[in-house]
Structure formats: structure tokens, C-alpha cells
Amino acid sequence: MKSAVGINESGVSAKERWGKVITKRGTLAGMILILLVLGILSPQFFAISNLLEILKQGSILTMVALSQTIVLVAGGFDLSAGAVVHFVSNLSAGMISGGQHVTVVLFMGILIGCVAGVLNAVLVNQFKIPPFVATLGVMFVLAGITLAYNQGKAIPLKGYPEFTYLGQGYVGPIPFIVIVVMAMMLAMHLHLKRTAAGLRMYAAGQNPQAARIRGISTSKSLFAAFVIGGLILGLTGVFHASYNYGSSAVASGLDFLISALAAAFLGSTFSKTGELSVIGTTCAGMFIAALSNGLIINGVSNTAMSGILGSILVISVILSVLHKREIGQVTIF
Amino acid sequence: MSRSATATELAASPSGTRLGILRDYGSLIGMGLVLIVFAIVKSEFMVFQNILGVLTQSTILIVLSLAMLMVMSVRAVDLSAAQVADAASIIAAASLIHDLPVWAAYLLPVAFGLIVGAVNGALMSYLGVPAIIGTLGMMFVIRSLELIYTNGGQPQILFTLPRGVTEPFLYLGQGNLAAKLPFLLVFAVIVSVAAFLLRERSVLGRRMDAINGNVRTSFLAGVQIKKVFASAFVISGVLAAIAGIVITSRTGIAVPRGSESYLLEGFVAIYLGTLASKTNRMNVVGTLIGALFVSFLNNWLTLMGIGAEYKNILSGCFILIAIAIGALRQPKS
């Protein structure tokens, strides 16, 4: 919290130059500074193998963050993200241990993710339920179904090299999952910035009324965003089970959600206008992974971790909203 | 909830006909029918002792949902409310364990709630952080502090203290007035009436309505929007802390992260509560009804021996059904 206050004060005192520099480029400089300090404190942080390990550790989180980003871009909000990942993760672990083939499991993940996306979109578009409440309800239902499926027990996977390759395998020195995330990022970047459908999503999210007047169907954009987001979440669930050698019984849905939101908003502070972008989200997601890794290397306990992540979330958002001077109402419900 | 709902609108709604009454109160009648079906299925459910127990137990949820209601009335959300209650319950227990006087066990948690509420208010209102992000961050910071203080989640137990020390504190949650009337029940009524007066009958409450309707217009009409917006968070923090005190004094034990599930139950209560209003407005009386319904539902599920999975699914479905009904019966305007 302290650094945020400091930045605030300096922004007021020398508004013209420093204020702008710090709020526009401050996040990037701050991130590099934090990583440098962590690296100096423990030199093994910057070893190539550790850096690749960080990219691998950050992949699942970045995937969830990417899905959250596209929904946020189109003006929605997805509370059910963590629950979808948790459910698919359990189901894929169950299916793999039941002898199903990896491709079947991948298709199942995509299918369930899409169904969850369609469900969210229909509740928001057709039933006019605000995204916050609709996805909250879906989250409850999915959490319940997950519990009914795994009976509160973890499903560990031992000796399925084909399946665990997804999350733990390497192509040369590079983890396979990192290649998947990069491909995902590239595809989404091209879609959002280079196609009409993607730009319409931005329009629908930033100013729905203006978008509607220009003849853009905001509900169509939101539908597409929820379905694409759901698809990614479904895939993430499969990779999650593979990465962790099975699924856990603990519903970590909300923890995923906060990290994903933090990544998306931290990423938005990269751009001058505070615009959400998939590249920003990816960089921020990997930064959060690097931060956790660096803190653990330096001996910070697990209990302090979520507090530090929470603080980073708030500080990053303060940096991006400081110049707006509005009250923080939530228009999504 | 996407439009203003004021007292004048309430009066304008036509409800004289039999169909009108069914439309306005049909959902409440539905809730009553659900409870009657519950009682027929399980006869222990409608026993006086059981009802009294559920009513007493529901105090925690009632106070916490009222806390969340205050913030949601100005179109924000306080995701940290349950965590504040959690931390407050630990503070109350810890101050008794550390030989502080009983008034400290009541006042320190409230002071904590006040501080968190003030920080939340400053973040959301004066710095403009979106409430959903700011309070999510706050929730994780508090959780982290809790876990650090309790060495990773050790419960704070009051049973081992001498009876004379704990008795005055436990009276709030376990004491009886004359004729076996639990004191907690009276306490719930007092808090509810206070919340009702504050929210529905005070100047501050009216200004909250104004902000809920249209921020820009209320600003032009001379409402100090930042102050009102921030005070909603402060009230929420204090009420949440009171809920935390009730938890400890009812059970004599404070478990870190033990009350996090109340957050989602609070949402269910508030959204079910919108059904009690003709204009789907979030309101105190409806929230009380919602909280009681959730408590009786939980009790019935426990009596039937049904696990958490179906509780989650039912809660999710109830939210979605409640909001869908609300959206479908909106008057054409």
C-alpha cells in the first residue's frame, strides 16, 4: 500500500511530468525493479531453467486471465471462471483414470467450457440477469456438480505420460504448455485487434450505448466473448489436471479468479489509456508467477502470498484509475 | 436493477387485482410453499425447538447480509465482508485469550471493522477503484493477515479459559432472557430495526437510493456522492465485524477462514430479498426474509443428511430463478 500512496503524492506535486510518467509507465518500471531486487537477493532466480519454470508455473493462471480478459473486453464479467476450471479438471482426471484417450478428454473440456459460456451468455442476454449474478449462480451450480462428482476426494493420476505431457512435457527446452499459451495469446491478439468482430467487442464493452447506435449488436459480442472465454477455460481445466498430475478436492476457484483479475487489470496499466489487452494480460500473468516464484525462493511463507497478491491487485488498479476521478461503482449488476 | 427504484415508483405500481398480487408476492408465496413441503417431508423440521434454533443461528447471516446490502444499495459490492467477520471473530477470541477486559473483546473487532470499512471507502470512493476489485484485494489481504497471526489457521479456542472470564462475552451468543428466550434473537431484532431505519427511513438512506439511481443526477442535486458512497463501506465494515463477534460468542471458538461461506449465502439472501419488493429493489425486509429462507434451507438439508454438493446446486438455482423471475416481471417502461 505504501508505494501507492507515494506515487499518488508525487503525481499531485509534479503533475505535468512525473505524475504522467509514473502512472503510464510506472507499472512496467515497478515490475522490473521488483524482479531485479528478487534476483539480486537470490541469484538462482535468473537462471534460464528457473525462468522457463516460471513461464510454466504461470501458464494456467495466464490462461484463466486470458479468458477473463476477453469477457471483460466485451463488457461482461465471469465469476464462474474458477469453478469451470475446477470442474473440467476433476472430470478430465476422472476420465483419464477411467481409460479415456487424451483427445476425447480435450474435446470434453472444450465442449463443457463452451456450454458454460453459452449458459452464462444466455442468462445475461436472454434473461437479462446482470453478469455478476448470473455467473455467481453458475459458479454455485458448477461447484455443487464438482462436489457431487468427486465426492470431496482428490483424483491423483499416476503413470499417464501421454496426458501429463500436456502440462509437464517439453519441446526441446521449452515447456509445451508455454507454447500453447503463446499460441492462444497470439490468436486472441489477432482476433481482438485485427478483426472487425474483435474491435466490435472493444466497442461494446467500452461504450455499449454508442456501440448500439453505430449498429453493433452488443449482446452478440458478449455472447461470442463468453463462448470464447468458456472454450479457453475448458482447455485450461484439462491442462490443470495434467499439470498437477490429477485434480484436487479443494475448490480453489476464488483464488484463481483473483489472480486472473489481477493479471487482467495489471495488464491494462501497460497501455496509455488503461485498455485491456491480451498481451498485457499475458505479461502480467507471467509477472505474478515470477513474483510468487521469487518470493518463495527468498523464503516468504505461503500464508503471506495471497495478501501480497491482493495488494498488488489493488495498487495496480489504483495506478490505472487514478486519473479518472470517479467513484468505484460496479455497473455489472 | 438497472434502473432507479424509489418510493414514488413503489406507489405507482398497480397491484389491486388478484393477478397483480400474485405477480407481486408470488415468489414469497413460493418460498413459503417450499418450506411447507420441507416440513411435510421431514417432520422434525417444524418442531418449535428446531425453529427457535434456526432463528437464533440465522442472526449471523442476517447481520452479514445487512452489511453487504448497505454497499450493494449504492451499486457497489463488498467481497471482503465475510472476511472482516472472520477476522473480527478471531480478534474477539484473541483479546479474551490475551486477558483483555470483556469490553475490549466487543470493541476491538468493531474498531477493526471500522478501519477496514474506512480504507475500503477511501479506496473505492476517493481513489475510484472498482469495488469488486478493491474489496477482493482487501479480502485476500485480511485472509493473509489472519493466517499469519494464527500460524497458518490454528483455531482460537475459548473453552480452556476460566468460565468467569468468558461468561460475560458468551452471553451475547448463548445467554437466555426470561422464559428461555435467546438473547441473540433480541439482538437480531435490534440490529435489523436499526438497519431498517438507517437504510429506509434516514436521510443517508435516501441519498443512497439517489446514488443507486443515477450518480450524475444526484451529484447535480447536491448529494455528496463520495461521502455517501464511502459511508456505505464503513457501515458495512462495522456490521460485518458485529457478525464476527456473534460467531465467536455463539460457538466459543474462532476458526480462521471458517465464515467465508457466509459471503455467498449473503448474496443469495440479498437477491432472494429483491423478490419481496415490487420493483426488484434490494431492501432490508426482503434481505431478512432471504436470510431466514437460506437458514431454514440449510437446516433442512442438514436434517435430511444432504451434503454440500446439493446445497451449492440449490443455492445457485435459487439465485438464478429469483433474478430471472425479477427480470421477467419488470414493468414495461
Q: Average the pLDDT over all residues of chain B and give the rounded result.
A: 86
Task: Identify the strand order in the major beta sheet of chain B.
Answer: 1-2
Specify the CATH architecture of chain B: Orthogonal Bundle
Distance between the termini of chain B: 13 Å
CATH topology of chain A: ABC transporter involved in vitamin B12 uptake, BtuC
Tell me which oligomeric state these chains represent: heterodimer
Distance between the termini of chain A: 28 Å
3D architecture notes:
- The complex is a heterodimer of chains A (333) and B (333).
- In chain A, 76% of the residues lie in helices and 2% in strands.
- Chain A has 333 residues and is mostly helical.
- In chain A, α3 (48-73) packs across α13, α9 (196-206) crosses α11 and α12 (253-268) packs across α13.
- Mean pLDDT of chain A is 84; it is low at 1-14.
- Chain B has helices at residues 7-12, 18-41, 48-72, 81-97, 102-126, 131-149, 163-174, 183-200, 203-213, 215-220, 225-251, 261-273, 284-304, 308-328; strands at residues 156-157, 253-254.
- Mean pLDDT of chain B is 86; it is low at 1-13.
- By secondary structure, chain B is mainly α.
- Chain B has one domain: Orthogonal Bundle (ABC transporter involved in vitamin B12 uptake, BtuC), CATH 1.10.3470.
- Chain B has a two-stranded antiparallel sheet.
